[in-house]
Amino acid sequence: MTLIPQLLLLLRRAGNLLTPEPTLRVDLRLAVSPAPSGTEISEAIDKCERQGWIISVRDDMTDELKWRITDAGRASLAERGL
Which pTM value belongs to this model? Predict the structure, then answer.
């Protein structure tokens, strides 16, 4: 499975919970073979965000980014049959 669908699937599995970016990156490296590079993951996250498939929230205290899937992201997965 390619990187973007896997990214969306991981976030969908989290439901409405926010997934910290470091956790998302580790999970993607474990789920996709061969393991994607940091740059590939960043590009996939950026593309998904531009498409409106995912959104981020920055924690004011830790400055950590956390992600969740949007309804558009769920629709994208449905279009792919996932």
Answer: 0.93
E strand or H helix that includes residue 46:
helix 38-51
- Give the pLDDT confidence of 14-56 residue by residue, as tens digits: 998 999 999 999 999 999 999 999 999 999 999 999 999 999 9
Residue 9 · residue 73 · CB < 8 Å: no
For each of the domains in the chain, give its residue range(s) and CATH number, in order of start.
3-79 (1.10.10.10)
Provide the CB-side half-sphere exposure for 54 (13 A, CA): 30
Residues whose CB is less than 8 angstroms from the CB of residue 28 and which lie 6 or more positions away in sequence, other chains included = 3, 6, 7, 10, 36, 41, 44
Query: Could you give the CA distance from residue 20 to residue 78 in angstroms, rounded to a whole number?
Result: 24
